[in-house]
Design a protein that fits this description.
Layout lengths: L4 E9 L2 E6 L2 E7 L1 H10 L5 E5 H4 L7 H10 L4 E4 L5 H9 L4 E4 L1 H5 L1 H11 L4 E9 L5 E5 L4 E6 H10 L4 E6 L11 H10 L4 E4 L5 H9 L5 E4 L1 H4 E2 L4 E2 L6 H8 L1
Parallel strand pairs: 1-4, 1-12, 4-5, 5-6, 6-7, 7-10, 10-11, 11-12
Antiparallel strand pairs: 1-2, 2-3, 7-8, 8-9, 13-14
Length: 253
């Protein structure tokens, strides 16, 4: 097994999977159950599933679909999108999902993170941070699928979330999302050096060398990617894939 987790990140919109560019213009890329089966065959370490409509507050949680996807997964699954209560967390974990990712409510109601970590264990609680770079200085936390600016500094938010009990930070660059030009190494480095819990870097992977850079230069504990695993070629033809373990190990060596 790889020492560094390399995690496909799937975006759910309605009943289908999509991929975005800087959190906009979602393009349909396939059926979630089919994608999970492909990743099962590829022996992927872990999956992240984010419901972007639930995240934006436009729909309730799709518990039936989450259950169906979790039932197909041979690997650990992290679900995020629209989670606001301990009852929802309990229900999702009860479906066989190993982790939940919480974004907006971590900002609006930090006690949810504290209480969830105490009730379910820090290993089950991931705080998702969508980061937007300011031209002048620093990075700001955005919520609701990047639609809401919070005025909160990303590094300070990550430190606070670790203090109150979250087990991992899922760090997503809004600016790099879907661009396939490489991760924001400065963002990753700032957060990973400020916390002791694992940081999962996301946003910008276009090659295996980008993944290696996020780990070696940014200090990420794990890396997540969307476009890299669902598109092929410069015309972005949809092809769900995952590199062989030996290829990933070679890139990260």
């Amino acid at each position: 097994m790889l020492k560094t987790r390399v995690i496909p990140c799937l975006l759910l919109k309605g009943q289908g999977l999509v991929k975005t560019l800087q959190f906009e213009d979602p393009k349909y890329v396939g059926d979630p159950i089919n994608a999970v089966r492909i990743f099962n065959e590829k022996e992927v370490d872990e999956l992240i599933l984010l419901d972007i409509l639930a995240t934006a507050g436009q729909r309730p949680l799709q518990m039936k679909l989450i259950s169906e996807i979790a039932g197909e997964c041979f690997m650990p699954l992290c679900y995020g999108g629209g989670i606001r209560t301990l009852e929802q967390i309990k229900a999702i974990l009860g479906l066989g999902v190993e982790k939940v990712a919480i974004n907006a409510c971590a900002v609006e109601n930090p006690d949810l993170i504290r209480n969830a970590a105490e009730m379910f264990g820090s290993q089950s609680i991931v705080v998702a941070i969508d980061a937007k770079k300011h031209p002048a200085d620093g990075y700001e936390v955005l919520t609701h699928s990047g639609k809401t600016a919070t005025g909160i500094d990303v590094v300070k938010h990550a430190v606070r979330m670790e203090e109150i009990g979250c087990g991992e930070i899922f760090l997503n660059s809004v600016d790099r999302d879907g661009m396939r030009q490489g991760y924001d190494i400065d963002l990753i480095r700032q957060v990973s050096s400020a916390v002791s819990i694992p940081v999962i870097a996301c946003g910008g992977a276009g090659s295996l060398s980008h993944i290696a850079d996020a780990v070696r230069l940014g200090g990420a504990s794990a890396v997540a990617a969307g476009s890299l695993f669902v598109f092929h070629g410069r015309h972005r033809a949809v092809l769900i894939s995952y590199p062989p373990t030996a290829e990933l190990e070679g890139a990260l060596r």
